[in-house]
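Exercise 7.
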Amino acid sequence: MPSYPFRTTREDFRIPLPDGTRLAARLWRPVSDEPVPALLEYSVGRLTDRTAAEDARRHPWYAGHGYGAVRVDTRGHGNSDGLPGEPGGDQELDDGAAVLDWLARRPWCSGRVGLLGVGAAGTTALLLAARAPDTVGAVVTVCPEGGHRLGGALLAADLHTRLTALVADAALPPDPRHVGDAWRTDWLARLESLDPPVDAWLAAGETTVPVPAPTFAVAGWGDPSCSFVLRLLATSPTARALLGPWPHGLPEDTLPETLRWWDHWLRDLDTGALTEPALRSWIGTRWTGEETWPSPDVREIHYGLDGPLRTAGTASDDRHVRVRSPQHTGLNAGAYVPLGRPADQPPDQREEDGRSVCFDSQPLPEPVELLGIPTVRLRLREGGPPAQITARLCAVGPDGTSTLLTRGVLVATGPDADVELAACAGTLPAGHRLRLALSSVYWPWVWPTPDGAGYALDPSRSTLTLPTRHLAADVGAAPVAFEAPALPEPLDVHRTEPLTARPEHVTVHDIGRREWRAELSPATDGSRTHPDGLVRDEHTVTAYRVLTGAPLSAQARTDHTVRLERPDIGWDVTVQTRTQLRCDAGHFLSVVQLRALEAGSVVFAREWQHRVPRWIPQGDSK
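Solution. The predicted structure, written as tokens, is:
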């Protein structure tokens, strides 16, 4: 254990809620005669197994620097009492507010509380801060998750995988080592209460997340949360952000920056947290700092699609360019949520460009630095059906290599279509060309439109707008640097790789059937034995299929199995979940299946079927 300002202790206990439910909690606390602030991480991830390794790194470090760091499992998850509810719903937030109030009144707590959350828990942290503004002094949100639609199009990538994992998390039992013989009764009650939120997820529009407390946001470029982070900076004067070359999750090198944030807001220490640039970001070769956001060093450059950018696709007798893509356009998109594996990154985009209509610039005479949210304004042919537009921005090298910079999707219902691309940062070298690639399909990121008709656009009335950073913006600026923390030794978790490990990402083209299939396996596959003897074995496969010329053939499926064992007491439970999604012309159709086994025997099995309209009525978006 490295040397920290405080010695630390760890204890497990249960937090009582007003209705008598008790939530499982783990506290790392400094040995001190003075009360200290509390930091709460409130999550559906089981603190005794799934998040144990990460918790054992960062929370003792926070405790060693003077904080009571608390991990709490939400109601009906892990070893907490009660029945699982809707993630981010009123019950979860009411419970969280009660936890905050309970922590603030502990004798060891100074009454000041901060919130930490990663992924979905990062969104929950912001919602919870809005629910309890008088208790929460500051928030650190990491890669907060948004809604289930992208520009109005329903996500195919990640949505059913997240739904499958959500059902599995809620279906796993409490651990008898922590709750005793009541585990089985509680488990069966959880299983009987389950109701996957398919209707709500498929019907929901874009989500709006408040920023009520001083918020420090951390994300990696390429994570879907980046655009939200930039909007947060633009609307909150007390917000700060780090956007770096990281996968989804909380980078350990950023922990000292989060500590400076906590120290400023919860301990009134002069850490200089608010004197840092509003945005510190990695732009491909170096770190940069923007004192305010929007930054005066970033200006918009406009490229007309019939001038600076041109395509060879314009017919001589029609000013409109037709965009109609094969249904497998998008198979080289990479991971929607990058987790740091090689297959997460989108490969050379030339195959995708060949399935799209491309507008190219001349070779750049000097480097161009991008920082912000690009947009594309398209003028579509009047009177057409709703169009699903995918816009990709690529850098094309002198050798023809096409590197994806960013992309965006929009379901356009009128002739004027404003497509917002994901926030990005990077440097385009001189001699490279800009490429705007437009397609009418982006599978399996978003579901295809029913007719596959595509759309037609008028290049003379269409524009690409890029946020370009002044090349001399860093002259005289202080360098941006980070100091790596000295963290505790990793938890002694023994990992056993599968004997026949699946490839991360495989694509198969069945030429005879004109079918394309993609199969993905996550890095979490394998068996992990924890220091207390618990064995967690996990396997997941996500598959997509589509026929080249048949948009209604698109299908997605995830199979997820989690097995928990305590060999010393003969405890052996397995949860198997499967989610399948497909669509017809007017509806999304889902089947969610769950089986729970004890010592190999089925104790519970259920199937849920949902039929949800494809289109959101005007004004019903949430």
